[in-house]
Amino acid sequence: QVQLVESGGGSVQTGESLTLSCVASGYTASSLCMAWFRQNPGKDREGVAQIDSDGRTFVADSVKGRFTVSKDNSKNALVLEMNNLKPEDTAMYYCAADHKYCEGFADFRYWGQGTQVTVSS
Question: Could you tell me where the beta strands, DSSP code E, fall in 1-121?
Fold first, then answer.
């Protein structure tokens, strides 16, 4: 079993930055496919970024150039650096992981509880 705990969310103004962290326990994060998703009430969940066990990354077009995904192996964590935040980035952000090669944003077995990001104009 893999447990995931997100942190780092908050309320910011347009153009500001936040860094989200997702600490994994029960398994080595560097060996997992890990991803960030976001969702607002009544809306579909959106895959934001992912990073594979070999370090290969993918970032959604909606956040490309503003968000960076990485792993902090010293903390066994997944990290999402979010710059130049916009009101449309407001959502609950979830961390997910699985023992697989990253291929798209489907079928992740392990999920965190989420951390809220609110961006005001």
Answer: 3-7, 10-13, 18-25, 33-39, 46-51, 57-59, 67-72, 77-82, 91-98, 110-111, 115-120
Q: Calculate the alpha carbon distances from 110 to 32, 33, 36, 117 in Å.
A: 11, 11, 12, 21
In Å, what is the CA distance from 20 to each residue of 60, 79, 93, 100, 116?
16, 6, 9, 23, 10
Q: Which residues contact 64 (CB under 8 A, 6 or more apart)?
A: none
**What pLDDT is stored for residue 66 in this prediction?**
98
Task: Assess whether pLDDT exceeds 90 at residue 99.
Answer: yes
DSSP tag of 106: -
Q: For a pLDDT cut of 90, what percent of the chain falls above it?
A: 94
Closest to 81 in 3D by CA, of 117, 52, 121, 28 = 117
